[in-house]
Specification:
homodimer, mainly alpha, two-stranded antiparallel sheet, 6 helices, DNA-binding
Chain lengths: 152, 152
DNA sequence: ACTATTTGGTTTGATGTCAAACTAAATGGG
DNA sequence: CCCATTTAGTTTGACATCAAACCAAATAGT
């Protein structure tokens, strides 16, 4: 297998696993929540809230237009609260509401339960050992695309 | 890091790498071709043509409805040709046209060129060594979702 | 200070994807 | 043989996502 083929194969496999895992999430998240919403809630929880939409978009690797949409959905459900930034009239700040925190916990519970059977099939060490590779690949790809710089 | 966190982290990383690589493809594929179209052309080339839409959908891990759409785009561009199956009135057979083969080569060229700089940053052995893990994970996830059975 | 550029966010239009309902053909049990 | 079930594909309606055009606020260069 030459280098190009290896790379194609690698990314093809990544793409399929990603699709399957996202489909898994979408099937098991409560109340029609989409995996992108779940990821956003988790991000807000992890980094502490008050991030700007653009920062979140960069962290999630989606465009700011997409984030506008995602946040409007979350806001409509009252899982986040969006306030204008007194320091900068252009930007906004996003906060998890108590409902948002509760919902996140509930979602994690559901997913974890649903995952229980399948999780036991994974080799923990195997996943762990490929994490650094994934992170390196992510960094490289992220640096490559000059626009929309890295976040998180 | 407990097991659940590890798994979440793993799939999160997979998701981001997948999104970045797909975005990369979408940016560099010629003529507005989408990565899913590219993947479908490649699949047809690899398995030899004459597959049914459903078989392709399973291999690509998308629903048959999605495949109907993808194939109609490819057919409109005359990159594939779709004929009815004389053996089975319900199903169809998909063939790469000469234009489709040519287009695939062109696309591979473009992508490979675009990838040249970034590809040199990857550690070939590293990618190679994580491939089996990805394939195992894929198999597990694929088996889990009882509907829409595995292909390829 | 004033204009030009950059930056954060929204809007618009297009597209890919999915789930669910539907159609038509094949298969199977009586 | 006939009806019930399964199977392949399409249609419909919803939604996530993107690129490009747009607006408004901040910043910079002169």
């Amino acid at each position: 297998m030459d280098d190009d083929t290896l790379i194609f194969t690698f990314f093809n496999e990544i793409g399929i696993v990603s699709q399957l895992s996202q489909a898994f999430l979408n099937r098991h998240l409560p109340d029609g929540l989409h995996s992108s919403h779940f990821a956003t809630l988790n991000h807000l929880y992890r980094v502490g809230d008050g991030s700007t939409p653009l920062a979140i978009a960069n962290a999630m690797q989606v465009t700011k237009a997409t984030m506008t949409h995602t946040l409007s959905v979350l806001e409509k459900r009252e899982l986040v609260q969006i306030s204008s930034n007194p320091r900068d009239g252009r930007s906004k700040k996003v906060f998890l509401t108590p409902a948002g925190r509760a919902f996140r916990l509930e979602a994690i519970g559901e997913v974890t339960t649903a995952m229980a059977t399948v999780a036991s099939l994974f080799d923990r060490a195997e996943l762990e050992s490929s994490l650094p590779t994934l992170q390196r690949v992510r960094k490289i790809l992220d640096a490559e695309r000059t626009n929309r710089p890295s976040g998180d």
